Amino acid sequence: MSSRKKAQITVGKRKTSKARVVITEGKGRIRINNTPIDLYQPLIAREKIIESVMVAGETADNVDIKVKVHGGGYMSQAEAARIGIAQGFVKWTRGKRLRSAYIAYDRTMLAGDGRRKEPKKFGGPGARRRKQKSYR
């Protein structure tokens, strides 16, 4: 007899950051890279992640969330974790009410952001900047 827990696995992406989110039945604990959410730094990134849990409301009290995030900067990682958690909750509940609540609050929690870095072109050091000219 195996006592398998119900689990939902989702992936959140933002710029070059990727967050793997595992939602299981539990007591409302949230861990990011094996760090409890209360100890996660910087504060602004923690608040960004908690937004997706706050919108979920009572659903978040009955589940444990484990997030493994890598790549990008700390804010990009926070956005990726936020997207992964929101998508995981929508899949977990299988309801349209939570999905519409996320879309009403902030559409990027479910849809993501398609902007990426523009590729570098010839004739300069970056995508748009050109070499300077001097006529003297």
- Read across the widest sheet, the strand sequence of neighbours is 1-2-5-3-4
Low-confidence stretches: none
Taken as a percent bin, the fraction of beta residues is: 15-25%
The count of strands amounts to 5
Helical percent range? Answer: 25-40%
CATH class: Alpha Beta
Give the topology:
Layout: E1 7-14, E2 17-25, E3 30-32, E4 35-36, H1 43-56, E5 63-70, H2 74-93, H3 96-105, H4 108-111
Parallel strand pairs: 3-5
Antiparallel strand pairs: 1-2, 2-5, 3-4
Helix pairs in contact: 1-2, 2-3
Give an account of the 3D structure.
The protein has a single domain (7-111), classed as Ribosomal Protein S5, domain 2 (2-Layer Sandwich). The chain has four helices and five strands; from the N terminus they run E-E-E-E-H-E-H-H-H. The protein has helices at 43-56, 74-93, 96-105, 108-111, and strands at 7-14, 17-25, 30-32, 35-36, 63-70. A five-stranded mixed β-sheet has the order 1-2-5-3-4. Strand 1 and strand 2 (17-25) form a beta hairpin. The chain is elongated, with a radius of gyration of 19 Å.
